[in-house]
Amino acid sequence: MYNYSTSKGLNVVLAAVGIVALALFGLFAFAPSAHAILACSPAHTTVSVGQTVFFTASGIATTTFDWGSPNQSVSNIGASFSEVFWSAGTQTVVVQTNDGQSAVCVVEVIGGTGGPDPGPPATGGGGTLLPVVVPLGLLALLGAATLYAIRYERRRAH
Amino acid sequence: MMGAMKGLLILAMILVIGVGAADLIHRSLPPGGSVGEIAKNIVVVSSDRAEAAQDRERDVVFPVTPSYLKIPAIGVAADVQHVGVAASGNMAVPTNYSDVGWYRDGSRPGEAGHAVFAGHVDNGIGLKAVFGNLHKLSSGDEIIVGNGSGEIRRFAVTENVVVDLASFPAEDVFRNEGEAGLVLITCDGAWNSAANEYEKRRIIYARPVTR
Is A104 helix (H, G, I), strand (E, B) or coil? Predict the structure, then answer.
């Protein structure tokens, strides 16, 4: 004997399972893709003092990046960047986009041994600003004298 | 009345020139510097760390990681910055004119090899900086290097030489083997405006002494 109520109940269960399956499929298959994340590679590398490291930004569609290392900061360049590391220790290179995303590459620089000796330090200011200071001082003097002369003439006129 | 006006004029001129000069001095300092540091640079360079450690200084026989450096003969008591190598490949320099830079990739004071320190000779407007009087040092003058705990190593000057940039003895200066010693470096000679640096370097060599 055909049990109509049993069959109906089974259909309801199957329909519910189908709906849930469809919902899950839709959730995973048609969900909006995750937000693109900026990456800096190599994320971690080890080099000797004096070696050059080449970095690449990836993960997003942006074509211009700001790069920063212990020695330099460069704005609005491409996805590639290189740096020579002269100081031993852990150093970081940061890449940033205009919309505020950033990623970091970590470089372990193995110090000293085998690396070249540094050159002599640049330990002089050289008084290079004196040619600027003196003319500006004279200009200030001239300006003050002119102001005085104008005020003096105005008072005399009154 | 005229006398008062003249006085006011002179006062105005002094103010205008003073403000302008202060602004320029400030601009002439490297990052981290301030107008107040000029006063330190002129004759005696004073260091907070050196002064703070003054009462608890004690001689030690092991190497110290430098926090301050004193040269009593020329009135230097300066904080020490730990520096590496600049992008140019030269030893980096302190970020102001009153501190001294210690080459952190080399030897520590008291260790085998040379502990190397560099300091500016002058600043952008020609005022003397921390190592402005290094030329006055002679054999036997004392150099004291201390760490944050007031543990000090003493050195005595053995040589005071000036070398051309082209013949700068980098291999010897930065050696990290052999007898322990200390080296001070600053600029000397004529200013080469085309190269934007001095043509010579003054090098002070010192050896450890114990009390």
Answer: strand
